[in-house]
């Protein structure tokens, strides 16, 4: 059973996401400490909220809960659950690493569908958590602890929210499109880099990230990108 999990596509997706998550978030935490101590005026000019910094206690809590989600919930709970779902949906037609990776189908057809599926899933679950006082108070409020987040805070969430609100929408794209394993690894890395960017706290290519505004104003920018917020009038740039 343990071998099956370790050799599964979902496990490799989680490993790839973990590698990029820890690399990016550790670099951003280091930049945060340089900027907080005024050791880099050049980097400080890019900080979106230059007067907001994470305290020592907040940093410890951040590392503990994020590590729990990334190193326990993702590999030990999400991998077996989504492997079963993936097998149930596609059975013997599920693609393996030995199958040919057809770039026209994987990149031009499946990836756009995965983006849409993830956006619909993330937006829907996110707006439900803001609409229900009970869910907000007991679940989603944890993720909103940081009004000016840092990259590591992208997975700082109640484990239930991490599983259903973050991982489920990301898994659903490859599962529904029966993505090739290489596409799935790529997709998890893209999703992880995107959410680290969204929570980095810095202007990248000259502008503040869309999701940073959600952490500050709460009732705007529920999506991971512009599509559904634009359609439903919840966008704030
Ligand atoms: Zn967030
Ligand atoms: Zn929220």
Automatic annotation (TrEMBL):
GO biological process: lipid biosynthetic process
GO MF annotation: an example: oxidoreductase activity
Keywords per UniProt: Membrane, Transmembrane, Transmembrane helix
Domain of life where this protein originates: Eukaryota
Keyword Membrane assigned: yes
Location in or out of the cell: Membrane
Gene Ontology CC: membrane
The Fatty acid hydroxylase domain, residue ranges: 114-234
Keyword Transmembrane helix found: yes
InterPro entries found in the cross-reference section: Fatty_acid_hydroxylase (IPR006694), Sterol_Desaturase_Related (IPR050307)
Transmembrane segments: 19-36, 62-86
Name of protein: Fatty acid hydroxylase domain-containing protein
Organism: Chaetoceros tenuissimus
């Amino acid at each position: 059973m343990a071998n099956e999990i370790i050799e599964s596509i979902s496990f490799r997706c989680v490993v790839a996401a973990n590698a990029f998550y820890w690399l990016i978030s550790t670099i951003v935490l280091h930049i945060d400490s340089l900027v907080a101590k005024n050791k880099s005026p050049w980097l400080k000019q890019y900080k979106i909220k230059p007067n907001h910094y994470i305290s020592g206690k907040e940093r410890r809590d951040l590392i503990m809960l994020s590590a729990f989600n990334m190193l326990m919930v993702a590999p030990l709970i999400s991998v077996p659950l989504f492997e079963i779902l993936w097998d149930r949906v596609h059975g013997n037609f599920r693609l393996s690493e030995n199958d040919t990776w057809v770039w026209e189908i994987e990149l031009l057809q499946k990836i756009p569908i995965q983006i849409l599926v993830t956006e619909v899933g993330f937006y829907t679950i996110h707006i439900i958590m803001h609409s229900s006082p009970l869910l907000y108070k007991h679940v989603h409020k944890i993720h909103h602890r940081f009004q000016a987040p840092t990259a590591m805070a992208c997975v700082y969430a109640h484990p239930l929210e991490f599983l259903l609100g973050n991982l489920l929408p990301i898994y659903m794209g490859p599962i529904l499109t029966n993505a090739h394993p290489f596409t799935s690894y790529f997709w998890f890395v893209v999703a992880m880099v995107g959410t680290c960017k969204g929570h980095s706290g810095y202007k990248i290519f000259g502008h503040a990230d869309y999701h940073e505004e959600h952490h500050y104003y709460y009732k705007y920018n529920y999506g991971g990108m512009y599509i559904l917020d634009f359609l439903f009038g919840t966008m704030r740039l």
